[in-house]
Structures are given as structure tokens and as C-alpha cells.
Amino acid sequence: FDQRMTPTVSLLMLLLLLGLSQAHPLQDEGNEEEVTDDVDISTRILTSNNATDEILLEGDLLAPRTRNAMRCWSQSCQWRKGSNGLVTIPFTVSSEFTSWERQKIQYAMNVYHSKTCLRFVPRQSEYDYISIENRAGCFSALGREGGRQVLSLNKQGCLYHGIIQHEINHALGFQHEQTRSDRDYYVRINWENINPQMAYNFYKQSTNNLNTPYDYSSIMHYGRTAFSIQYGRDSITPIPDANVQIGQRRGMSYWDIMRINLLYGC
């Protein structure tokens, strides 16, 4: 018996290995150690943000100072595309982050590099840039503000793959899925389960939905108990199927990536 594999067998083995390597969900998932528990993304973010003294909208959006950031669907709020067709976004990372933590941030950014025309590049001397800092909480401004723009990823509670991408998406101009203009067709907001002082976090926004469907699996969708007055009470219920999962933090969904490509003309 000839021990050497024939070209046909070699091809079959190659195809089998290729198939196994591609056998993963379309969603970009972070490290397995990050997704073994069932804590949703909003619980992670809001718990971390309890320590901050920043004025935040919807839990993790820096309140506008010089403009109404909640209507950020104009070119002035987008990062600019170069003549090479790439959208270059300069950034800095605080020296407070360890080498391993920097790698986690870079890993989350690399997904944008592989699936969109966005490129995060270390800042040289550019005026507009994102400053990734270890502040008290996970939060970002909405869209490009101009100048130095803080994106906070607290070392103790925010360095999860999906949370990093969630805050980056805010910096790109994307709002929370459950506040989009047509959300009432897809989720029910249980106002009776929400602290009245927190109700403003669920107000619908005038959003550009880019002709894309409502996405329960979006990395921008908060979990069902966000801002709930009591543990176990749902503030958000998917309709018509209340059992649909919302608030995942594994990474961007298919439509998250598609929207980036649509908004930035990739």
C-alpha cells in the first residue's frame, strides 16, 4: 500500500481543514473566557459606570457640550474618508493599559480592518483623534467631535471584546439599537419597571437606520433589564417573541458590520 497521499486525497484533506476553519458563526466573537457567563452587555456597562461622575446619556454616551450629539447623522460627525477609499481614525492608548490589555483593544479594532474600510492608526499629529483612556466606566462621545475625543475603557469592567466594539461604534456615530426610531415595532419598553428618573434613557431618537432591519443581535442593543427598578424585572421585552436574546457582548453582528460599510460608503 502506497503511504503517500494522492493529489485527490490531499485536496479532500485541504477542503476538510478549510471547512473546519470556517465553521464559526457570522458574528465576530471574542475570547471564549469572556462569554462563559450570561451577563448582558448593558449590565456590564452600567455596573462599571456606577463609579463615574460624567454626565452620561443612555448609560454610556457622553452628554453633548457644544452640539446636540444625539443627531449625529451628518458628514460633520463622521470620520473622513481619504482618496484611497479608507476611513483613517487616529487613536492613542493610555500608558495605564498593560501590553495584554492593549492587545485586547487592538484585537477588537482588527475586526474593523478585516470587514470594513475603517483603519485605526496610531496618532501622529492629527487634530481629530480618539483617546482611549482608563477612566471610571465605559463610555464614548457619539460620532466625531473634533479634537481629542475620549473613549473610556475602565480596566476593571470594560475590557471585553464586545464592550470595546460597542464604545467604538458610538465613536463612529452609532446609537443604541433599542432607541432607534422604529423600535416600537420590535420591542416593548416596560415603563412601569423603569425608574422614572431614568426613563429618558429609553426615549426614541431620530435615527438614520440605513434601510437595515431591526437587529436584536446588535452589539449596540442593551439587555432586557437595563435601568430596571428591581432585579428580575424586564425594562425591554422583544416582540412578538419575548424569548429572543438581546444584549449579547460577543462582538459585532452581521448588520453592525453592514451598517458601518453603508454609513461610510465602504
UniProtKB/TrEMBL annotation:
Tell me its EC number(s), please: 3.4.24.-
Which BP terms does GO give this entry?
proteolysis
Secretion signal span: 1-23
- What residues does the Peptidase M12A domain cover? 68-266
Which CDD domains would you find in this protein's record?
Answer: ZnMc_hatching_enzyme
The UniProt entry, under PANTHER family, shows:
DISCOIDIN, CUB, EGF, LAMININ , AND ZINC METALLOPROTEASE DOMAIN CONTAINING, HATCHING ENZYME 1.2-RELATED
Protein's name in the database: Metalloendopeptidase
Name the species this protein comes from: Cynoglossus semilaevis
